[in-house]
Write a structure and sequence with these properties.
Transcription Elongation Factor S-II, Chain A, 39% helix, globular, Aminopeptidase, transmembrane helix, 3 domains, 800 residues
C-alpha cells in the first residue's frame, strides 16, 4: 500500500460543474493508477507503478510455456497435442476467472459506475456476520429494517409525548426524560447514559404579564389589548417597553426593509408588525428590524399563509406562535463554551441576543392594529388576508392624532438543569465512529409535530436497530440515539453537547440526522442537508415508496412534478434547523428530513393547538404511515453509513461550490484589476482542493477496501472534510458558525459574494480593505482544506 501513498502526492484535474454543490464526475474511469494529470498548472507528471514484480498473466504464460515445451518433447501425435493444449488452456482460464471473480467480489464491491460518486452502493456487498458466522449482505439488512419498523408504535408515542406541555425544567419534562431513559434501557442497548448541563433559559414572568397598549400623544393609555395565553412569548427577547408608531414590514426579510427605505417610510423607533414565515426565523426578523432602527417587534400568523378551511382559519386567527429570537444556538450566556457544571467562564453573552423587545400576537390583534394604519399603500404581494380595509405601511394610526403603540415584555432568565438522554449500539469494527440520530424532547405547548413526531421516530429507530442486532446485524460503526433537551430555545441541549466535545467530533461523528419537525404535511419531502450527504438521500428516495402516492417512489413522485428531483427535495441548512449547528458549528455532515404540504401547510406548530388529534386531522389519519416512511429513509441512510467499508460521503461536492464562486469572481475581473485585486489565489486553492478530492476518490476506487488499515486512513480523511471548512481565523466565541459555506459572518462565502456585488450596484459602498480580508480568509480556508484532504503534510505544493 506504499504505492497508494505515493499516488496521493499526484494531483488530478478539476471537474466542471453546473450547480454550486453539484458533483462533476469523470465520464470514464482511468485505466490505471499510474495516470496523474495536472491540467490546471499545465504540468504532465506521470507516475509509473507496478503493484507486483510479476502480473498474473506473466505467471500464467510462464507456466503454460513450460507445459507446452514438455508436452511436445514427449508427444509425437500433433493432433493429440493440440487437444491437450486446448484442455490445459481452458483449465487455466477457468481457474483464473474464478480467482478474479472471488477477488472482485471481495475487494471491488464499490468499483461500479464512477459517475455515481465516491462509493456506489452494492446491495450484495457484505461483511457483516451474524452470530452464527453467516454473511449478511446489505440487501438483506435493508429487508430486515423494513420488516421491523412499525407505524403503530409511532402514532402511540406521539400521543403519549404530546399529552401536555413539557418545557425544560418542568415536572412534565423531567417525567418524559425518565420515561425515554427507561425505554432505551429496555431495548438492551450497549450503553445508556445522561449528559447534564446548566443553561440560562428565558420564561414569562410569574409576577408581571407581557402587555400591549394604545397610548395618546401624552403617553396616557387609551386602550389595553389582551395578548392571550401568558405562555405566548419570544424567548431571549430584550425586556422593557417600546413605544412608537406602527410599521407593517411584511415577512421582515432584508429585502422587505430595503423596499421600505426606498419608499421613504419612517421606521426610526417604531414598532414593527411582521408576518410569520417568508423563509426567515423569528430571530432573523428581529435582527433585521433592530438594524433598521425599529424599537420593537410584534409577530403574527397571517391567514393567507395557512389552509383555507374556515374552521381552521377561525382557530388560527386566535393563535399566537411562540419562538425564540436568539440569532444563534445554545446557551447565549456561554457562547462557544459548554455549560458543564464544573466550568466557570467569565461573564459574557452572545452577540446574537436582540436589544429590542419582541412578542408574538394573534392574527386578530394584528388585524386591529393594521386596520388603523395610514401612510403609503402596501407594495404588490404584501397584502395578506386580514380583515382590514386598506393595506398601508404606517407609521401613523388613524384612530387619533399622535396615537402610538406601547409594548411591554417582562420575561425573566433562570438557570435550568438540562438532561440529554443517550443510548448507543456499539460498532464491531470501528466502534469509535458514530452515526448520530437525535430529536428534541421539550415543547412549550403539547408539541405533537414539533417534538412528539421526532421523539417517536427516534424511539422506533432505536427499537428497530436493537431488534436487528438481536437477529444477527453487527454494525461496523456505532449508532448513537439522542433525546435533546431545550430544543425550543435554539437547540440548547444539542449545542452545549457539541461545545463540550468540539475538539473530537470531527474524529468521532460520521453524520447527524435530525428528526425534529419531521412531519408538517403528507406530500413533499424536503432534505435540509450538507452537500456531502446528497448522494445518500438520492439513493434511498429511489427505494422508499411514497406514503401518499401508492406505486410511486419518493424519487419518481418528485420527478413527476415537472422539475429535477434535487430542486424539489434538496434544500440548504437553515439557522433554526436541528441539524444546523452540527455542520455550521461542529463541522459534522448533517441532515433534517421533513414531509410538508405546500397547499395545506401545518399551521399549529409552536402553538397551544399542536396536538396529536390536530396533526392526525391534517394528515387524514396517515401519521403512522408518514412516520414509518421517514424512519425508513433515515434508517436506510444510517444502515449504509454503518455497513460500508468506505464511508459514502461525497468529498468532491465542494469542488463545484468553489468553481461556481470562481466564475463569479471572473465576472468582476475588470473591476478587481482596476483596484489591484487578483483572484488568482482563489483559483489556485480551488484547483488544489479539486485535485485532492479527485485523487482521493480515484485512490479509493482502485484500492483494496478490505485492507482495514487503508480503509481507516481513507475514512479519517473523509470524515474531516466538513471540519476543514470551519474557518480557523475567526473566534468560536464571537463567530460560532465558522463554516465558510454554511455559517454566518464576514468570513463566509455568502458575505463575500454580497460584498462583491457592490462593485457594480453601489461602488461607493465597496470597502477594499474589508474585501481583501474576506478574500484572504476564504482562500486560506479553502487551501487548508485542500492540503488536509490530500493527506500528505510533508509535500504541500503551495503556489501562494
Amino acid at each position: 500500500m506504499d504505492t497508494v501513498q505515493t499516488l496521493l502526492k499526484g494531483q488530478h484535474s478539476p471537474s466542471p460543474s453546473h450547480h454550486p454543490c453539484s458533483i462533476y464526475r469523470q465520464q470514464a474511469q482511468r485505466s490505471s493508477l499510474s495516470e496523474v494529470v495536472e491540467e490546471e498548472r499545465g504540468e504532465s507528471p506521470q507516475v509509473e507503478m507496478k503493484l507486483h514484480p510479476e502480473s498474473q498473466e506473466d505467471l500464467n504464460f510462464g507456466l503454460s510455456s513450460d507445459i507446452i515445451a514438455l508436452f511436445f518433447q514427449h508427444s509425437g501425435n500433433r493432433r493429440k497435442a493440440v487437444f491437450y493444449l486446448t484442455l490445459i488452456s481452458l483449465l487455466i482460464f477457468t481457474i483464473a476467472f474464478l480467482l478474479g471473480y472471488v477477488a472482485f467480489r471481495g475487494s471491488c464491491q464499490y468499483c461500479g459506475d464512477t459517475n455515481r460518486g465516491l462509493v456506489p452502493v452494492d446491495d450484495t456487498a457484505g461483511y457483516d456476520y451474524s452470530s452464527h458466522g453467516s454473511v449478511m449482505y446489505l440487501g438483506e439488512l435493508k429487508d430486515m429494517l423494513r420488516k421491523y419498523l412499525k407505524e403503530e408504535q409511532i402514532e402511540s408515542t406521539v400521543r403519549r409525548v404530546s399529552r401536555s406541555p413539557h418545557p425544560p425544567g418542568s415536572s412534565e419534562g423531567s417525567a418524559l426524560a425518565s420515561e425515554i431513559l427507561q425505554k432505551f434501557r429496555q431495548l438492551h442497548m450497549d450503553h445508556t447514559w445522561t449528559d447534564s448541563h446548566y443553561a440560562t433559559l428565558q420564561f414569562p414572568s410569574r409576577t408581571q404579564r407581557n402587555s400591549l397598549w394604545i397610548v395618546d400623544a401624552n403617553d396616557e393609555v387609551v386602550e389595553e389589548i389582551p395578548l392571550g395565553s401568558p405562555m405566548d412569548y419570544c424567548a431571549y427577547s430584550a425586556t422593557g417597553t417600546a413605544t412608537g408608531g406602527v410599521v407593517y414590514v411584511n415577512y421582515g426579510r432584508q429585502e422587505d426593509f430595503d423596499l421600505l427605505r426606498s419608499l421613504g417610510v419612517s421606521m426610526g423607533g417604531a414598532v414593527a408588525v411582521v408576518r410569520v414565515g417568508g423563509g426567515v426565523s423569528f430571530a432573523e426578523k428581529v435582527w433585521h428590524a433592530q438594524r433598521a432602527g425599529l424599537g420593537g417587534v410584534l409577530i403574527y400568523p397571517d391567514p393567507a399563509d395557512v389552509p383555507q378551511d374556515p374552521r381552521r382559519l377561525g382557530l388560527y386567527s386566535s393563535a399566537a406562535i411562540s419562538e425564540h429570537v436568539h440569532l444563534g444556538s445554545g446557551d447565549p450566556f456561554t457562547p462557544g463554551f459548554p455549560s458543564f457544571n464544573h466550568t466557570q467562564f467569565p461573564p459574557t453573552q452572545s452577540s446574537g441576543l436582540p436589544v429590542i423587545p419582541a412578542q408574538p400576537i394573534s392574527a386578530n390583534i394584528a388585524s386591529k392594529l393594521l386596520s388603523q394604519l395610514t401612510g403609503p399603500g402596501c407594495p404588490r404581494g404584501w397584502q395578506g388576508r386580514l380583515p382590514y380595509v386598506r393595506c398601508a405601511l404606517g407609521p401613523g394610526l388613524s384612530s387619533g392624532e399622535g396615537r402610538r403603540v406601547r409594548m411591554g415584555v417582562y420575561n425573566t432568565m433562570r438557570p435550568v438543569l438540562l438532561n440529554n438522554i443517550f443510548a448507543s449500539i456499539e460498532g464491531k469494527i470501528e466502534p469509535d465512529q458514530y452515526i448520530i440520530m437525535g430529536a428534541q424532547r421539550d415543547s412549550w405547548g403539547p408539541g405533537a409535530a414539533k417534538a412528539g413526531v421526532g421523539t417517536a421516530i427516534l424511539l422506533e429507530l432505536a427499537r428497530t436497530f436493537s431488534t436487528m442486532v438481536e437477529n444477527g446485524f453487527l454494525p461496523r460503526r456505532s449508532l448513537l440515539f439522542v433525546s435533546w433537551d431545550a430544543g425550543d430555545f435554539g437547540s440548547v441541549g444539542a449545542t452545549e453537547w457539541l461545545e463540550g466535545y468540539l475538539s473530537m467530533l470531527h474524529l468521532k461523528a460520521v453524520a447527524y440526522f435530525s428528526l425534529d419537525k419531521a412531519i408538517f404535511g403528507d406530500d413533499i419531502l424536503s432534505a435540509y442537508t450538507s452537500p456531502l450527504l446528497v448522494d445518500l438521500i438520492e439513493g434511498v428516495i429511489k427505494q422508499v415508496e411514497h406514503p401518499k402516492h401508492s406505486g410511486r417512489t419518493i424519487f419518481s413522485h418528485a420527478e413527476s412534478m415537472g422539475s429535477n428531483w434535487k430542486s424539489q427535495i434538496v434544500k440548504p441548512l437553515y439557522l433554526n434547523s436541528g441539524a444546523y449547528s452540527f455542520t455550521a458549528f461542529g463541522g459534522v455532515p448533517a441532515m433534517e428530513l421533513r414531509f410538508t404540504e405546500d397547499s395545506r401547510p401545518y399551521p399549529f406548530v409552536n402553538t397551544q393547538f399542536d396536538t396529536a388529534d390536530k396533526l392526525q386531522e391534517m394528515l387524514q389519519g396517515r401519521l403512522g404511515a408518514l412516520g414509518r416512511s421517514l424512519g425508513e429513509l433515515v434508517g436506510l441512510m444510517v444502515l449504509r453509513l454503518a455497513h460500508d467499508n468506505i464511508l459514502p460521503l461525497d468529498v468532491t461536492c465542494y469542488s463545484g461550490t468553489a468553481l461556481h464562486f470562481s466564475s463569479q469572481l471572473n465576472k468582476y475581473s475588470s473591476e478587481l484589476q482596476a483596484r489591484g485585486l487578483s483572484p488568482q489565489w482563489v483559483f489556485s486553492a480551488r484547483g488544489d482542493y479539486n485535485r485532492a478530492a479527485e485523487t482521493l476518490r480515484q485512490a479509493i476506487l482502485n484500492s483494496d477496501i478490505q485492507d482495514e488499515r487503508m480503509t481507516r486512513l481513507y475514512n479519517t480523511r473523509i470524515m474531516r472534510v466538513e471540519y476543514y471548512f470551519l474557518s480557523q481565523y475567526v473566534s468560536a466565541v464571537e463567530t460560532p458558525f465558522r463554516h465558510v459555506l454554511h455559517g454566518r459572518g464576514e468570513h463566509t462565502l455568502s458575505a463575500l459574494t454580497e460584498h462583491l456585488s457592490l462593485l457594480r450596484s453601489n461602488p461607493h459602498l465597496f470597502d477594499e480593505a474589508r474585501f481583501r480580508r474576506q478574500l484572504a480568509l476564504l482562500t486560506w480556508t479553502l487551501q487548508g482544506a485542500a492540503n488536509a484532504l490530500s493527506g500528505d503534510v510533508w509535500n504541500i505544493d503551495n503556489t501562494f
